[in-house]
Amino acid sequence: MTTLEATNPLALDLARALDPVTLANKIGLEPEPWQEQVLRSRYPRILLNCHRQAGKSTIAGLLAVHVALYQPGSLILLLSPAQRQSQELFKKAIHAYRALGRPVPPETENRLALELENGSRIVSLPGQEATVRSFSNVRLLVVDEAARVPDELYFSVRPMLAVSKGRLVAMSTPFGRRGWWYDAHRGEAEWERYEIPATDCSRISQAFLDEEKATLGEWWFNQEYLCEFMDAATSAFALEDIERMFTEEVEPWTLSSAWT
Ligand SMILES: Nc1ncnc2c1ncn2[C@@H]1O[C@H](COP(=O)(O)OP(=O)(O)OP(=O)(O)O)[C@@H](O)[C@H]1O
Ligand SMILES: [Mg+2]
């Protein structure tokens, strides 16, 4: 227990409400500088172009919990190309919520949704346009593996932010020079843009990166670890073939699932 926790729990709760970084610290997470900036950002649109295993989902899960706890009545949606990936992100949010000791009690807590007594909800969505249309008044929309979220799915969820003036956090490792996320990355529209290559990550050694480069080859290495939008023409695989690996029918394989 910290001194402030013992002497003035209200002041500590206020600090956590104002600064999500204190929430991260409470669960033993020391955010990287870019993660701190994301947690503290007030931008309505945030684009995270980060290397694999950078900590995108971890920080977005924590942000979702912060909004749910401190903005009562919020609807937070987690969207990915496939339900399983949304659930992975949802697990990060649930993990943070439980590690914090469920500061606002749950009304419903299951594999797909967390509903709190303060009226906030965090919902993990399937990656299908037809089934995500029913939501409105969204306070925070998190799009994970955004480079693989089809344009039609992205365009169908954007209107959910209109009335509520909700925020949008879209994060990914690049996946070719096409689609809405690539356009958002290089376009004129108002986004707070982050680009985090693995060479900036204190948790990944140069020796590991050297090994990955030797194994994956330059094309994949530049995409997965250096956040570069690579040209499909120079790829050894057709992007469409790779894309099929990310449909609902096929279970996604991720580096994180292999490492954790
Ligand atoms: N600030 C941090 N300090 C220590 N560990 C961290 C930090 N941020 C993330 N991690 C850990 O790094 C690993 C990868 O995190 P996470 O899954 O959030 O990354 P990601 O960018 O979403 O990865 P992927 O590209 O595979 O989806 C996890 O084990 C997570 O707990
Ligand atoms: Mg992730």
What value does the Rg take, in angstroms? 18 Å
Number of helices: 12
Structural class: alpha/beta
Which CATH class applies here?
A: Alpha Beta
Q: How is the CATH topology named?
A: Rossmann fold
User: What is the assigned CATH homologous superfamily?
Assistant: P-loop containing nucleotide triphosphate hydrolases
The coarse overall form would be globular
Structure ligands? adenosine-5'-triphosphate, magnesium ion
Q: How much beta, percentage-wise?
A: 5-15%
Q: Biggest sheet, open or closed, and with what strands and sense?
A: 8 strands, mixed
| Count of individual domains | 1
Q: Could you walk me through the main structural features you see in this protein, from its secondary elements to its overall organization?
A:
With 260 residues, the protein is an alpha/beta fold. The chain has one domain: P-loop containing nucleotide triphosphate hydrolases (Rossmann fold), CATH 3.40.50.300. It has helices at residues 3-7, 9-18, 20-26, 33-40, 56-70, 83-99, 129-132, 151-157, 180-186, 206-226, 239-244, 255-259; strands at residues 45-50, 75-79, 106-109, 113-116, 121-124, 140-143, 167-172, 192-196. Strand 6, helix 8 (151-157) and strand 7 (167-172) form a beta-alpha-beta unit. The chain is globular and about 55 Å long. It starts with a helix and ends with a helix. Bound molecules: adenosine-5'-triphosphate and magnesium ion (MG). Residues 29-32, 35, 50, 52-58, 173, 203, 254-256, 260 line the site of adenosine-5'-triphosphate.
